[in-house]
Amino acid sequence: MKFATIKGWGKCLPPAVLTNDDISTFLDTNDEWIVSRTGMKERRVSHVHVSDLSYVACVRALAAAGVNAEEVDLIIFGSCTADEVVPNTASRIQLLLGIKTAASFDLNTACTSGMYALSVASAMIKTGAVRTALVIGAEVISVAQDWTDRNVAVLFGDGAAAFVLQGTEEQEGLLADELGCYADSRDILRANGYGLRYIDGQNILGTIWWDFLGQEIFKKAVMGMCEASAGAIAQAGLSTDQIDLVVPHQANLRIIEAVVKRLGVSGRVFLNIHKYGNMSAATTPVALVEAIEEGHVKPGMHILLPAFGGGLTYSAHIIRWGERVTPVHIADIELPPCEKSALEMVREHMSRPRAGGPF
Ligand code: ACO
After folding, report:
1. Is 278 part of the annotated catalytic residue set?
2. DSSP per residue over 217-245, as a string?
3. Helix, strand or coil for residue 309?
């Protein structure tokens, strides 16, 4: 197959909403600071595992595509907050979907994971290795959050989105992608405490604290997203004027504004950062799903998706949308009800025993 088109799309946002005012009940911060520095008003906190959010997003994406789960022969779970490392989270999603066998694996490049997954799945479809893929960008950051640190606690939220990809001879789906990583900046963003290096007799898994140099991340994010976007636009043989819609990673409104100004694409940008904050790997995928649902995506559009994440990884994808912008079916599926408020769940995370700490 020459191309891998996006046939279906679905998202799953946990229902519990954590507002800026909620956060200011336990941290020295306020709505005015958070809105003016980030553009965020609220975010979601999940009451279920990331695999459960992903499962619902996948069922919705398969229905939107009009594709049966048995046709799926590849599942890529893009995330840095897997349920478990062994077995991987993709295999639980496969099990929940009732798919007997598929190539199922997890992919972690932090916030760019969903977009890297799109690249890998498209490439595997183009080589003929697989025919139908589920690409997932999902995150439950709330569990890995240091809720005592106002530098990071205000920035993140939980969510999931999924896409169904299939091969086609039509010039649709991913036209160009530019991926990279500033490895010399890997220390500026670190969720300390998970990973085997933290089992050293002094610490236990479950204590998480962040290294987060906000201004350095800001500068590298703008640089990476702009360079990758310019590279992908050139690779696709397009000019910036031919980009119809930009759906960027939503980590900070000011980062997006800087990228948009440098690229010269103002007036063509989809934003939802005010509703969800930064959902890491789920951010750009959820934004693309909402852009489709809200009617911003038209047949044949060229869509640019720039992103960045810990690593410090960056990416830019150019998609040419196909003919269909409405779902084939709408799935009748919901998450189990949530009995607690977002604030109650955050307080539970804060009350978990903390051991070790920075060492
Ligand atoms: N509430 C109130 N005040 C705060 C808060 C808060 N939540 N956080 C920081 N401040 C204070 C600081 O302590 C500082 O006070 P001081 O001047 O008395 O020292 C002041 O606000 C300014 O802090 P800065 O760090 O200079 O604020 P800045 O304008 O740079 O904004 C921010 C900080 C929002 C973090 C910004 O740097 C940013 O967005 N960086 C990029 C972060 C990002 O995108 N991360 C995504 C990571 S992606 C992934 O893969 C996980």
Report:
1. yes
2. HHHHHHHHHHHHHHHHHHHTT--GGG--E
3. strand
- Catalytic site residue 80? no
- Contacts (Cβ under 8 Å, ≥6 apart) of 150: 27, 28, 29
Q: What is the largest CA-CA distance in the chain?
A: 57
CATH topology of domain 3-351: Peroxisomal Thiolase; Chain A, domain 1 (3.40.47)
The one catalytic residue among 20, 192, 252, 278: 278
pLDDT digits (tens, 9 = 90+) for 66-113: 999 999 999 999 999 999 999 999 999 999 999 999 999 999 999 999
Beta-strand (E) ranges in the chain?
Answer: 3-12, 16-19, 42-45, 74-78, 103-107, 132-139, 159-168, 173-181, 189-192, 209-212, 245-246, 302-309, 313-320
Q: Which atom of ligand 1 is nearest to the CA of 150?
A: 7
